[in-house]
């Protein structure tokens, strides 16, 4: 039965007074959401009319995360409390809850080829490859999860490691990998022989796709951030061409796309060079960024990605944001705002701006806190995850408050709930229609799903409540929407996802949307 307006108003008031406890779980069975023609905080006299206009003209490939395959091989083997069962009981269920559509995954060549298979890069001696190593088993678990989720995977051959530490004692003597150039002092360097590099990468990809059946593998990237003192542009370009030829020779080029450049945020010359010289080999390009923060206006973020999109377009290709986070970096493993509630608003605002600028998707670094080596010290643990590692590990932190604030192992951070709103409702195959909110620190977008249903996202990083009269004259745009809100006062318990608080109906062709200060709101027909 349709509820009358007085009853709806009463229900909304009760939910607000109760701290919106309904936000910690989806409605069950035939339980109906309260209906309203406005969201809480909407003020008609202070509202701005916002119209859905023109799309960016691209189709999204999805929103995702970095998930490098070290949990089972490097973290469980530390014997500091992490268990193999935690993968199936905690990590995979959370991946399902987040609805992750894309994974960017590290590869290192010593996992499957610790020693050169033979002296001829044209012929792969498959019996010399260690496809059943513990490190490869850990990789298979990540790919299993992606396959189950129907998610797309980008495999990144990080580089040639100058220090190897394999679990198999038979390879204890393998330290500097045979692929390494004699030059370079980074922990990964360029190869001495591009043909050998291409053989190794192509052979493992062929194994994963054809022998293991991982249809989730869609893209390949040779080298992580090659512009960062690993391989100069003049040698990266011919290497990418060699890889392209090898994939064709091995009969798998039609099964994968080459996602190239992978450059850092301030070195667009690398992206531009790749677009100029690799237009025939590349299928799309990507860049990383850690230069935007709480004081960065939308126009700055938009301009950065618009320039990337324009560079990729010179080759007739799209652009993807391959890594992102905040600018509060302390080395490569820490960002000082990682535990802040407000970070969730920032991450959502960045994604909205990237999409509005024409990006075809984003990948957040990274899904989980984890060690990349089983013998690494606490300072080396990657701590940029949507959730943390074992609580006891943080007892080593120089700031005792880090440990004291934790109550559980694998405890989610606030940003887990915010980014999940995007991965759950901004789906691959969608089109993006930017919204002009007239505010440098509030960003909005409208997304039309492949089936025609709409989702609207607004991230309000200002200290004021904002009100909008949202209009969409396109087909289906004003159908009722469920309302989800990332609000510091109403975060769910544990790893449950934010649930809808009400159903928004249009009023005379308008969605009356109030967005609380420092919050994210999602209206969706999904």
From TrEMBL:
Keyword Signal in record: yes
Gene3D superfamilies linked to this entry: Glycosidases
Domain of life of the source: Bacteria
UniProt cross-references to PROSITE patterns, sorted A to Z: PROKAR_LIPOPROTEIN (PS51257)
Keywords assigned by UniProt, alphabetized: Signal
Cleaved signal peptide residues: 1-25
Family annotation (InterPro entries): 6GAL/EXGAL, GH
Stated name of the protein: Alpha-galactosidase
Protein species of origin: Alistipes timonensis JC136
């Amino acid at each position: 039965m349709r509820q009358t307006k007085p009853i709806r108003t009463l229900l909304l008031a009760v939910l607000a007074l109760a701290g919106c406890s309904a936000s910690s779980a989806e409605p069950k069975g035939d339980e109906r959401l309260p209906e309203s023609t406005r969201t809480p905080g909407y003020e008609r006299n202070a509202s701005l009319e916002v119209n859905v206009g023109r799309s960016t003209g691209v189709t999204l490939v999805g929103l995702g995360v970095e998930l490098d395959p070290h949990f089972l091989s490097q973290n469980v083997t530390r014997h500091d409390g992490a268990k193999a069962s935690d993968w199936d009981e905690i990590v995979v269920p959370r991946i399902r809850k987040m609805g992750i559509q894309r994974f960017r995954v590290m590869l290192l060549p010593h996992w499957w080829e610790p020693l050169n298979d033979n002296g001829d890069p044209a012929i792969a001696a498959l019996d010399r490859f260690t496809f059943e190593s513990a490190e490869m088993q850990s990789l298979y678990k990540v790919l299993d999860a992606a396959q189950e989720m129907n998610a797309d995977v980008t495999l990144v051959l990080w580089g040639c490691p100058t220090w190897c530490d394999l679990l198999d004692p038979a390879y204890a003597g393998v330290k500097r990998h045979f692929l390494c150039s004699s030059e370079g002092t980074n922990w990964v360097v360029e190869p001495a022989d591009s043909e050998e590099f291409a053989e190794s990468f192509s052979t493992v990809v062929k194994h994963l796709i054809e022998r293991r059946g991982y249809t989730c593998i869609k893209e390949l990237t040779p080298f992580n951030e090659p512009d960062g003192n690993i391989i100069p542009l003049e040698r990266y370009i011919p290497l990418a061409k060699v890889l392209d030829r090898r994939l064709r020779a091995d009969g798998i080029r039609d099964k994968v796309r080459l996602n190239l450049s992978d450059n850092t945020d301030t070195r667009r010359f690398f992206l531009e060079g790749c677009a100029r010289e690799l237009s025939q080999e590349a299928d799309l390009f990507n860049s990383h960024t850690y230069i935007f923060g709480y004081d960065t206006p939308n126009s700055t973020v938009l301009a950065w990605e618009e320039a990337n999109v324009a560079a990729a377009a010179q080759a007739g290709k799209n652009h993807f944001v391959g890594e992102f986070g905040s600018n509060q970096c302390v080395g490569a493993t820490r960002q000082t705002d990682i535990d802040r509630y407000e970070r969730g608003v920032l991450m959502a605002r960045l994604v909205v701006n990237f999409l509005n600028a024409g990006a075809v998707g984003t990948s957040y670094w990274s899904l989980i806190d984890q060690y990349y080596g089983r013998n690494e010290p606490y300072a080396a643990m990657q701590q940029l995850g949507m959730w943390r590692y074992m609580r006891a590990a943080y007892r080593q932190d120089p700031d005792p408050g880090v440990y004291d604030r934790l109550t559980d192992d694998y405890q989610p951070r606030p940003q887990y709930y915010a980014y999940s709103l995007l991965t759950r409702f901004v789906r691959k195959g969608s089109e993006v229609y930017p919204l002009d909110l007239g505010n440098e620190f509030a960003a909005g977008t409208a997304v039309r799903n492949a089936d025609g249903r709409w989702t609207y996202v607004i991230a309000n990083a200002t200290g004021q409540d904002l009100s909008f009269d949202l209009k969409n004259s396109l087909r289906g745009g004003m159908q009722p929407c469920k309302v989800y809100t990332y609000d510091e006062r109403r975060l769910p318990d544990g790893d449950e996802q934010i649930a809808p608080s009400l159903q928004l109906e249009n009023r005379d062709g308008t969605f009356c949307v109030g967005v609380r200060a420092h919050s994210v709101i999602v209206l969706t027909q999904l």
